[in-house]
Amino acid sequence: MTTDALVPPTTKSQALRSYDVADFPALTGLEEEWRFTPLKRMRGLASAADGAAGKPVTVEAVDLPAGVTLRSVPAEEAERVLVPFDRVSALAYGAATEVSLVEIAPEAQVARPALVRVIGPGIDSSSYARTLVRVGRFAEATLVLEQLGSATLADNVEVIVGDGAKLTLVTIAEWDAGAVQAQHVKLRVGRDAKVVHVQVALGGDLVRQYTSVEYTARGGEAELYGLYFADAGQHLEHRQLVDHSVPDCRSYVGYRGALQGQSSHTVWVGDVLIQAAATGTDTYEINRNLILTDGARADSVPNLEIETGEVAGAGHASATGRFDDEQLFYLMARGIPEEEARKLVVRGFFAELLNKIPLEELRTRLGDAIEARLVKAGA
What we know:
SUF_FeS_clus_asmbl_SufD; Fe-S_cluster_assembly_SufBD; SUF_FeS_clus_asmbl_SufBD_core
């Protein structure tokens, strides 16, 4: 390891990237990238020096329409998209011996959403996983990656969206109560390609998800949406890095979260980097948090790093507030019971993001899960 690895980078583009866990210093919790994360609750994922994996996750093809395939391939044979830039991601990369490869054929117009389910093996030992999604040129598809059960899991999801292709990717972390997950999702967007990523986090004890985007040529578009709901004691953390390094690309980031219960904690950190060569960039990011009870905490940090003045647009916003009693009063004044009124306000807060999911059955299930949390808390 060179001494340069110990010097904090001046820009996101200079951050250390490596497949070798040893290149990353041991985590202390004082690092900027980890200062919000309770490392002691990660059950060794943050401190392990090698990937002595326990039981692997189970990957199931629930519904694969024509044009979509799923198979397992040896890690050494799979294309590399992500170069890890944190210790846990590098650990997962080295420890995953098999890769779940989802392929969407070039020019395929997939008729209905494909559904792949990941089931955790339990929390007793650490698990590591790697998923690679390859979308062929000019294909159009929707893919849902659903994670259920319980696990102590570090995993990487790598997505290649070929030139002219369009992908809607929905990832759902609906873990059981004791699960711990540290995940990196990497999106590589080709020329005139578009990816819409909807990230949902509801379950687990601690879930930390990092999403990064890179563009390979002009005309790429990335829309990142997130929906999260933290209950008592939960830690849900979401970070994004959108790296505009080529001209005339677009990005939009919109995340919304709700919190209730003692010691519920959410973190959103949105980083957008516009490099000097990325003229004509159009980008915007926004995060909104709704605090429903005392004892909840939401941290929200938007960042823009701009190296050129020749951009089409660049902006960010963040807002965190308590439940709007005026909205509640308005509904109750029209004869709606208080419990039902609270459900309507929260569902309305999430409605825009739920509507980004192109599967009615899934939208309904997630909406019901949100309402069940409100009922559980006595809202």
